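ingest -> validate -> predict -> emit
validate: passed (alphabet ok, no gaps, 522 aa)
predict: started
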Amino acid sequence: MFAGKKRSLFTLTGLYILTIPFFNGLNVTTYDNSQLLGHFAPSTTAFSYAVYIPIFAMLAFLPLGLKLGKQIKVRTMILSVSFLSLLFNTASLFAPTIAWFVLCRSLLAIVSIIGIFASMVPILLKYNPALNMALMYGIFQFIQKGSQHLYQYLGANFVSFHNWTFGVYFLNLNFLICIILAWYFYKADVAPLKTKFQFDWRGWIIMILFFAIILFLCAEGQTRNWLSDPKITLAFAFLFITVGIYLLHVRFTTEPLINPDVYKFKNVIVGALMMFYIGIMNGTGSVVTGYMTNVLGFDSVLGAVTHLSLLIGLCISIPLSTYLLYKRIYLATIWIIGFACYGIYHITLYFRFYPGIDASDFYLPLIFKGVGMGFIFPVSLLYISEGVPPQLSTSRMMTGIIAQAIFASLLGGAVLGTFISKMNVQHKTGLSQQLSAINKQAESQLENSKKKFLFLGLSDAEAQKKAEKSLSNQTSQASILLAYKDIYLVMSAICFLPIFIILIFKLWRRPIGRVEVEPIPI
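emit:
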C-alpha cells in the first residue's frame, strides 16, 4: 500500500512538472527586450506591438484551447504541442524581421495554452477527488507563479552569458523534457472528457475584435496622448459598439462563449471586481521594473535576482493560504492578510524611494508583495468559481481574465505609464523653477560642478554647459522619484481600503463554498 502511494505521488509530481514549460513559454524571454531591439531595430511603436501581441494571442486563444484540451487524446495532444512548441520556438531564431519573430512567439503562446489545458486534465480526473479544489488551485498557483520568476531569472542569466538566443535554446530543452515525460507518464492515449464539439465561433471572432481594439489602445494610447487623439476616441467608441454586437449575438446563440447567465451569480460579479482590483495592485510591479532598468541602470540579471524575492514570498504564502482554505478558514481572514501585505509592499517602497536607493532596498518590499500574491490569487480564483455550474465554466474564466489581465494589467498598465509621465513632467517643472539665483544651494552646486569641469580642461562655456546639464539630470531623477512616491502612496491607500470595508460591513465571514469548475491558474 505504501509503495502504491509512493508511486502515485511520483506520478502526480511528474504530471505537474510537465505543465511548467507550457506556463513559461514567454516568461523565459522576458529580459531580452534590449537585445531584441538591437537585433531587429524596430520603431518604438512596432516594438510595443511586438511585446503585446503574443500576450493577447494567448488570452484570445484560451477558450478554444480549453475546448481542444478536452477533445483530443491527451498523449497525442501533449506530444503534438511539445513538438510544435519546439518548431515555433526554433523558428523564432531565424526570423528575418520583427513581424516574423512576433508571429513565431504568438504561435508558441497559442500552443502553450493548449499544452496547459491538456496537461491539467489527467491531474483533475485522477487526483482532484482526493485533493479537493482548494489544494488543486493552490498547487497550480504555486507552480505557475513560482516557476514564472524562476524562469525569468534563468532567462536573464542565459541572455547575459551570450545573447537572447540562449533563452530560446533553454526553452527548447524544456520542451524536449516534456516529450520524454509524456512518453513515460501517459501510458493510455485517450480523451476522457470528449463530448460533441460545439464552439461559439462567431462570439470568438467578436471577442478577438474586442481584444484587437484594446491591443491598439495599449500599444498606441500613450504615444497618442489618449482621448486627445481622434483615432483613440474612435477606438473607444468601437469598443462599446463591439460589446453591443456581442450582446446582440448572445440573443441568437444557445451556447455563447461568455454567457450573461453567469452574472446571475453574485460572486462572479464581485469576483470580477476583485480580480480587476488585484490586477491594478499587481500592475505597479512594472513601475518598479522600469525604475530599476531606466533610472537606476540595473542590468537584466540584477533585476531578475531582485525579483526572486517574490519567489520567497510565494513559498511562504501559497502553502499557508492553501492550508487555510483547505481547513475552511473564513474568506475575510485570507483577504485581509493578502491586502495588508500588498499595502505594506507599497507603503514600504514609498519610504524607500530616495536618492541612493539600492537593490537591497527592494528585497523586503518584494517579499511582502510575494506573500500578498500567494494569499490573494488562489482565493480569488476559488471565489469567482464558487457555485458556478460546469456549463458556465468558460464564461466565468473569461470574465476573470478580461477583468484582471485585459482591463487591469494591460490597459491599466498603459494608462498608469501615461499618468507617471505627466506627474514626472509636473514635478520636473516645479523643481526646475527652483533652480534660480535665489536658490543658494542650487547655485552652489552649479558652481562646484563648473569648477570640476574647468579642472578637467574644458573651456568656460563648455564647463557651464556641462554643469547645467548635470544639474538638470539630477532634477530629472528627483522628479521621477517624487512621481513614484506619489503612485505608491496612493496605491498603499487603495490596498488598505478593502480591509476597512471588510471589517466595517462584516463581509465574507464564512469559508469557501462548493467549486466544481476547472482551475484555470492563468
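The two ends are 36 Å apart (CA to CA).
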